[in-house]
Amino acid sequence: MLRKVSYSRELFPELLLGQATQVNILVGSHVWIEDQEVAWIDGEVVKINGDEAEIQTTNGKKTYTGNILIAVNPFQRLPHLYDAQMMAHYKGAPLGELSPHVFAIADVAYRAMINEGKSNSILVSGESGAGKTETTKMLMQYLAYLGGRAATEGRTVEQQVLEKVASNRQKSVYDIFDSLWGTSRFGKFVEIQFDKRGRISGAAIRTYLLERSRVCQVSDPERNYHCFYLLCAAPQEEIDKYKLGNPRSFHYLNQTNCYELVGVSDAQDYLATRRAMDIVGISKQEQDAIFRVVAAILHLGNIEFAKGKEVDSSVPKDDKSKFHLQTTAELLMCDPNALEDALCKRVMITPEEVIKRSLDPVGATVSRDGLAKTIYSRLFDWLVDKINNSIGQDPNSTCLIGVLDIYGFESFKSNSFEQFCINYTNEKLQQHFNQHVFKMEQEEYTREEIDWSYIEFVDNQDVLDLIEKYAFHNYKLPALATRLCLPRGAILLHCVVKGDNSPSRKHLWCIPGSLAGGIFQSTVSQKPGGIVALLDEACMFPKSTHETFSNKLYQTFSKHKRFIKPKLSRTDFTIAHYAGEVLYQSDQFLDKNKDYVVPEHQDLLSASKCSFVAGLFPSIPEETTKSSKFSSIGSRFKLQLQQLMETLNSTEPHYIRCVKPNNVLKPAIFENVNVMQQLRCGGVLEAIRISCAGYPTRRTFFEFINRFKILAPETVQGNFDEKAACKKVLEKMGLQGYQIGKTKVFLRAGQMAELDSRRAEKLSNAAKTIQRKIRTHIARRKFIALCEAAIVMQTLCRRSLACKLYENLRREAAAIKVQKNQRRHHSRKSYKRLQNSATILQAGSRATAARKEFRYRRQTKAAIIIQAYWRCHKAYSYCKKLKKAALVSQCRWRGQLARKELRKLKMAARETGALKEAKDKLEKKVEELTWRLQFEKRLRTDLEESKEQEISKLQQSLQEMQIKIDETNALVVKEREASRKATEEAAATAVKETPVPFEDTEKIERLTAEVDGLKALLQSERERAEEWERKCLEAEKSSEEKHKKLEETERRVHQLQDSLNRLEDRVSNLESENKVLRQQALSIAQTNKILALRSRSIMQRTESSRNAEGRAQKALNEKQQENQDLLIRCVAQQLGFAKGRPISACIIYKCLRQWRSFEVERTSIFDRIVQTIGQAIEPQDNNDILAYWLSNTSYLLLLLQRTLKASGAAGTTQRRRSTSATLFGMMTQSFRGIPRGVDISSVDGEITGAIDSTLTHIEAKYPALLFKQQLTAYVEKIYGMIRDNLKKEISPLLGLCIQAPRTAKVSALTQGNAAAQQSLFAHWRGIVQSFSTYMQVMKGNYVPSFLIRKVHTQVFSFVNVQLFNSLLLRRECCSFSNAEYVKAGLAELENWCYDATEEYVGPAWDELKHIRQAIGFLVIHQKPQKTLDEVSHDLCPVLSIQQLYRISTMYWDDNYGTHSLSPDVIANMKVLMTEDSNNAVSSSFLLDDDSSIPFTVDDLAKSTEQISISDIEPPPLIHDHASFSFLLPISE
To answer: The pTM is what?
Structure first.
């Protein structure tokens, strides 16, 4: 494709990727041009036009970076780039002369091997999908092309390698691996051996780390191993033979949606694989056995298990599973029942017996997958050995070329043991890359002794030490130890380890045999072991888990800079690799590192009737089984890797970095960021950096002079020094920055291209000189002939031209003169016309302006006169309307106030009626309870009487039984005596040989029988006595229980009686107040009627009468008014507190008692006190002043509550108010506006002038009762103001507390220091600080602890409502990390509540139950396993179904990716929500804030102890005043 570009700005000559220098471009030069899509593209200069050049671009997919080839996967087949013609084109071509190609790298490696006699290696690396496999195929194909064919008899080794390793028709060993297993699933190193003539003489293949877990688990959109898909695409007879079908029907294949590859035919690949196996030498029987085993693995994956009849047992789930079980057994040629037992059971051998244990369905599934992976791994190992044996190796080979195709660096969301080994391999290869690219580059500069500053490169030796280093602790080992044999040349040391200052401990070490000799020294001193060593150590102990393994890593490498412990995980760990940090999950590290086979599986398959399957699982000798139970995959892999590195270190390396241009695997798409990351992971960018900073081009003195002597011929005349000549050439060309070493010239990037350009220009100029001379000679001869003919023609033409020129000059001069006169006339005429027009326009415009000015002045004067008259009329009308409106407003306002007062009095009367009804109900309830109490007492009395009677009967019967027993005993004694006497007499008679009478014998027998009967009767009587005693005990227990119930009933009756007494007191007080209010309402109604009939005259008369009464009152109480003024002035000051009691409240109360203000019908002192309090609390934001007056008003209200009574009641109470505004309507009524005819109450007794320490009750008049109500309103108002101020202060912080700040959280997680944690919880600590400040202010002003508790309770309820509603409305707040943040903040509040003590906080912490339970639900683990009953009753009993459903659906885990509740639980929630909506229950899931006043005066009075005011000192303002001497303490 041709492109036109400006080469002054966009062209750079082709060079090894480095720093470019602008040079002169010639036709044929190779250049790079900038492209918007692919960044840079190469091409050749075709044509140059000034500053523009035409470039013929290419579609190359490879480029060089120094000696590193970068190959980009085109994701399409390009057969013309890899055919035989292309191989012949690159054969023997120097590197860099032709376009970059894998054939060029292979040719360089082959030529270096032939010329230097040293082995070479080609390292192909890159991530999955970058084209490593195809690149390796092309390399071996080219090497087979160079190696040629040896004409020997039969089927030679070289011919086998050619057909099996490099065949274009995929008849290669490499294709076998690619078709069956997919080469990205494992690493391989192919050794191609050559003889002395450069002919292929042998080959070998070594593999590394087969990814066995992919057999059972594969992630979307990747495929499983290719062999499964090839077998499913086999001919129909093969499918029927193995009972296969579509890949979507197999569990091991349908875990991903990728079943076919674009442009790849699985059926053709299957046939090609069969042909390749024939070429390798695998027989038909072995091929059938191989594919039969592969089919058996597919059927094995479809076996599912269900719970068996026994506990923790499992059986095949259904008929489908049984079919696949039978098919698997047939393919493996083993017993189906034995196969089922091997999958579902385990045999445990103990010294006493053999125990067969069943596995649950989960364990059986794990056993099934383990068997599949084991079979697959053994099959793979067999195939590798078979191919190596078939190919054969040359023991006499002197050199070889190794091609390494291995996995690239991997970093996924979930990284396990496979990714750890893969990245470990890449770390090793990166170190090798560093040593042979970076270090060799700098060593050459040092060897040539050029001025060079060393460039630092990333050395990953510390990462390799972290992974693979062996080490032991600083312990002294005893001389004796027990050495046990372990597999793979390792030994196990069991000995007693004694430290320098520590007691003896037993330890085990498992070490390689090569290191065993250095163990038995007196002291071992090395660094901590690597991850692989610790993993092997953990695998050796049966009780080790991934958690203990992770903790060991954390302890060992906590200070290692390459090892990072995650903040939010206890088992994961992060390693900082050269390509970036990778987070590993250690959950399966131990299982994947253990290389063992389940004995049941081994026994099953070793007994197979198929010799091939039995050969895969040979019998293991018993001694070997006992002595080598543990084998580490990690150690074996590390050993293989060390052998690989030794091989690579003994060869000359060449590097090919494969790059995947995009992640969608499609052609013509180039993702720059992805490519840059791959180049960075492959170390290419570092090589570019060194190339740019160093000297990428270097030539020997002879080569340089031989090529560039044409630029300075004078430097090579005669005898000359090559080094000096090179220096002169470079100085003449004006190059800067080059270096001249001992044997070579080192040039900067671009300088070689500039020298080639100068050389090409020099040669071009010489050719042009020769061409110019020849062309000049030919042109001169033609020129002389033309000149002679031209002279004649010129003479004739010049004469004719001169005549015509003269005529034209004459005509031109005449025309100019005529034009001059005509133009002058036209110009003068136009000027005159223009001048006249300007004069007329000026005169007209000036006249118009004068007329406008005159008209404006006349209109202005008239407008001023009109405005003056209008303003006068408007002011007069407004004055009249204002007077009229003032009169109407006054009348209406006074009437409105009277109607409001009447309405309030009516409402109070209705409330009194309601209280009476409540009183009647309570009286009925008390009567019913009294009756029940009496009934219980009667029952108790009857029960006691019956019990006493029964006890007396039992005692009486017991006494009778005792008497009978005594009589029986006496009778028995008498009978015994008689028997004894009779026996003696009988004995005597027998001596005398007197016959025994028959009657005595019968009598003895009768007595014996009677004694036995008495004994039986005695036994029965004893049993009856025991039965009666048991019944007596039961009766006593029942009596005690009834007695307890009776006492509980009596206590409840007493409580109800107390409640009834309090209600009676409240009703009596309300009746008294209602009577006063009713009388006032009647007087006000009469006054309103009189005002309506006699509006103006009566108003004037009332005003005059009030003025007269005021003057009389002032004259009579002038002294008292002075005292009141002094009291108000004193109260207006902040007097402070004395022994925790407010001085102002005590002084006011004493003065009101002394002046008998509570007992008068009219007084103004209450109004003035209320006004003083109202003025003091006007600044609502001053919490100190509010707390001071809350303390004074509450204490004064308590004094009035315990002192005042109305209409003979013992006290007065107030009902709870929903808001503080309920009593403020009554404050508009003045104390002095009470009608004279209202009879409120009478005084029961006289009170002395001195006030005792005890508070006596006073029958208060209406002003005192109203003053008490106003004090109650002020207490509620000030309480509400303090509460609302605290809410306002913490509201902004609550909005910030519900969601963790991202920047602060990231800082806290990354830094982990105290300052970051402090900043993260700054908002919560701000709330705690606000609570502490407010509590200190209230405690400093001695606010009752009851009110402080109520403030905290309501504010905590507000915090609960705000946080909970924000959590339900904002999805970003329902995350796991945010819930942990809020939980930590709630812990701050809980600590504050604990420090503040329950006296001032009370049950405030319980108000946060909604947000606490919601946060607790968000942070619990294993949510999908929770049932609805557990969530709604155990975890969140307070939350409703709607709230639980909202939280469950909005939950998301930003740390671990866990899920919310199971779909079944959420579906049940939906059903319950639907039922609730059908039952007309509110579906709102938000909480409401309660702003009511949560206490009454009675509650406040009950919570406060007795107040003593006798020892309060008066303030200095009234201390020495004679009228206030009663305030002084008694002692003074």
So the answer is: 0.47
